[in-house]
Amino acid sequence: MARQEDRNSETGGIDELVTQLRRLRARSGLTLTALGERTNYSKSSWGRYLSGRTLPPYQAVLSFCRVVEADQERVLALWEAAHRERARRANQPSERPEGVDGDAVAEAELVPARGESSVGVTGPGGRVRVPLGVVFGSALLGLGLGCLLGARVARSHV
């Protein structure tokens, strides 16, 4: 019986957590704005957590439980199951052709397809990726121009 409960919490951890958080928020009558103000996590963050798009951090769940007066142990157990499920999903190997290792796949994903440019492409965290060659090329060009201008100024003072 305990084994079956563990299995259920492993396979539906994220869904169970999201469902429980929604129920507790509905029971409390708090809006996302009020929840954000009372937990120091933004309204948009709570929107992502309660929709299941993002798992809330541990501290957010603690604050949530305090604000809605929920059983922390139960909700934190669901949070732990959800994080185990997410970790397990992240560690599952993706489907790839035989003989192709993970490094080759990761490297291939970094190279733009023919006709595409990687300059200005948004990478993880919303940052813009710039090829290393562009950075070094710009630095060398600046250094070269600086040397030329410096030599020209030195000759004009002679």
From TrEMBL:
Indicate the segments annotated as coiled coil, or none if absent: none
Q: Which keywords belong to this entry? A: Membrane, Transmembrane, Transmembrane helix
Transmembrane domains' residue ranges: 132-154
Pfam families the UniProt entry points to: HTH_31
Q: Which superkingdom does the taxonomy of this entry point to?
A: Bacteria
The HTH cro/C1-type domain is annotated at 21-75
A GO MF annotation of the entry reads: DNA binding
Which InterPro entries does this one have?
A: Cro/C1-type_HTH (IPR001387), Lambda_DNA-bd_dom_sf (IPR010982)
Q: Does Coiled coil show up as a keyword for this record?
A: no
Name it. XRE family transcriptional regulator
Organism from which the protein derives: Actinopolyspora erythraea
